[in-house]
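Need residues for this backbone.
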């Protein structure tokens, strides 16, 4: 097949546009404040959430990194004591957001867009847990089924808990259930992704020697609970075929990628621990996961491929990966970056990154 050139055409017909030739182009406008951010897809852009100090704010951004709306605006969802934010696309008109609020619990919001194109809250539900602290993540299969995974300090011992969001339009409070096992390490990260119906895939860290685990979760029932590898900082996403990309920081601090089926076997066959693919040679910075959460390793699906963004020892690294193949590896040397995440669509990632302020960096043809 012909070689790829950077022209938004899949010349070698492998379903990947501009494979191996994408580069960081120009950053979007810098926002003055933002301690963490995450994007979820919409046609022609994204709906995002950011943690601005101790508040949660939602916004709409195009693929060029420009904040949109009338006026261009950030909408405050939570006004105090926010420690973690996450967002998940439900449809092109609905998104779900989770915010850990210290001393209160995890606040779940269902968002739509108002007539001006700005995010607006349509329904709310609280996971009431005054011990909730630090990381929380959210996934949704429908307006009837969602799931939150979060950190709680029950009786002074940190544990990983989950809370099913049954009937998202129900504004009453719900409660969490602690995952099985001992030596939970919620300060080292966790994530959740939807399968279908009431079924979800979850990942978390457990053990005095930290091990990344995956399992299937339906309501409070955990099955197929297994270790994928030694490490921490897991991030999980579902691809267009219903398979899952899992990335985490290995015990050698290098990023690891696994491509898993919905039954938690490797897409290529074998146990989930058998298909670890190491991304690059630069070590990943440890996340902030105690009283607040900042991402340093993140993954987004783009069709059946994935984009991975990492805050590495000497800057930022962005990969495009599928199976055991790294298609793109883009490095930027910069010392000031504290956190990083990634969204993706149509062969292009958009990378929120920063320290106290942040930008949405675009990648495309240099």
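Answer:
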């Amino acid at each position: 097949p012909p070689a790829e050139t950077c022209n938004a055409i899949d010349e070698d017909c492998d379903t990947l546009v501009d494979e191996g030739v994408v580069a960081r182009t120009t950053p979007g406008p810098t926002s003055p404040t933002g301690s963490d951010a995450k994007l979820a897809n919409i046609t022609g852009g994204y709906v995002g959430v950011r943690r601005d100090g101790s508040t949660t704010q939602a916004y709409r951004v195009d693929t060029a990194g420009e904040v949109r709306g009338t006026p261009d605006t950030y909408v405050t969802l939570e006004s105090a004591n926010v420690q973690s934010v996450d967002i998940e696309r439900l449809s092109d008109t609905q998104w779900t957001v989770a915010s850990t609020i210290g001393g209160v619990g995890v606040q779940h919001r269902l968002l739509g867009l108002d007539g001006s194109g700005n995010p607006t809250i349509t329904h709310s539900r609280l996971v009431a847990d005054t011990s909730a602290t630090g990381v929380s993540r959210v996934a949704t299969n429908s307006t009837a089924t969602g799931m939150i995974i979060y950190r709680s300090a029950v009786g002074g011992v940190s544990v990983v808990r989950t809370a099913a969001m049954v009937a998202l339009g129900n504004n009453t409070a719900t409660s969490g259930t602690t995952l099985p096992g001992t030596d939970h390490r919620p300060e080292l990260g966790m994530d959740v992704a939807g399968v279908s119906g009431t079924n979800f895939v979850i990942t978390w860290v457990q053990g005095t020697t930290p091990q990344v685990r995956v399992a299937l979760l339906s309501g409070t029932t955990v099955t197929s609970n297994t270790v994928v590898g030694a490490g921490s900082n897991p991030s999980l996403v579902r691809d267009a075929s219903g398979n899952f990309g899992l990335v985490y920081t290995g015990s050698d601090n290098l990023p690891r990628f696994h491509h898993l089926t919905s039954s938690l076997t490797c897409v290529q066959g074998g146990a989930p621990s058998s298909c670890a693919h190491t991304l690059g040679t630069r070590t990943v910075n440890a996340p902030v996961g105690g009283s607040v959460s900042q991402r340093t390793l993140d993954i987004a699906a783009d069709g059946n491929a994935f984009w991975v963004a990492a805050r590495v020892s000497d800057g930022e690294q962005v990969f495009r990966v599928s199976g055991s193949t790294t298609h793109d590896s883009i490095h930027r040397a910069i010392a000031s970056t504290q956190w990083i995440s990634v969204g993706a669509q149509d062969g292009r990632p958009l990378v929120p990154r920063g320290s106290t302020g942040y930008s949405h960096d675009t990648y495309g043809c240099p």
